[in-house]
């Protein structure tokens, strides 16, 4: 990966071409040696982070 924006990743593919991949609706799997990391694109977008923080605030206010 060489570029990370709010809604996309810019990557260099195996055929040495630059590709722009949207985060929404994508699942990214990165593997190095024995480590495997899965990133859910929908959870990486700032809109999703805002929604999640709003859900947490509502839940906390209901508990109190």
- What is the CA–CA distance across the termini? 43 Å
Category by helix and strand content: alpha+beta
How many distinct beta strands?
Answer: 5
Taken together, the total number of domains comes to: 1
The coarse silhouette is: elongated
Strand order of the largest sheet: 1-2-3
Mean pLDDT comes to 84
Give the uncertain stretches in residue-range form: none
Task: Please give the largest β-sheet.
Answer: 3 strands, antiparallel
Which radius of gyration do the C-alpha atoms yield? Answer: 16 Å
Order of helices and strands: EEEEEHH
Approximately what portion of the residues adopt beta-strand conformation?
A: 35-45%
Helix content range: 25-40%
Q: DSSP helix count? A: 2
Could you write a compact summary of the structure shown?
This protein has two helices and five strands.
């Amino acid at each position: 990966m060489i570029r990370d924006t709010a809604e996309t990743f810019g990557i260099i593919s195996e055929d040495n071409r630059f590709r722009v991949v949207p985060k929404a609706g994508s699942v990214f799997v990165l593997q190095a040696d024995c480590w495997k990391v899965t990133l859910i694109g929908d959870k990486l977008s700032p809109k999703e982070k805002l929604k999640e923080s709003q859900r947490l605030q509502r839940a906390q206010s209901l508990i109190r």
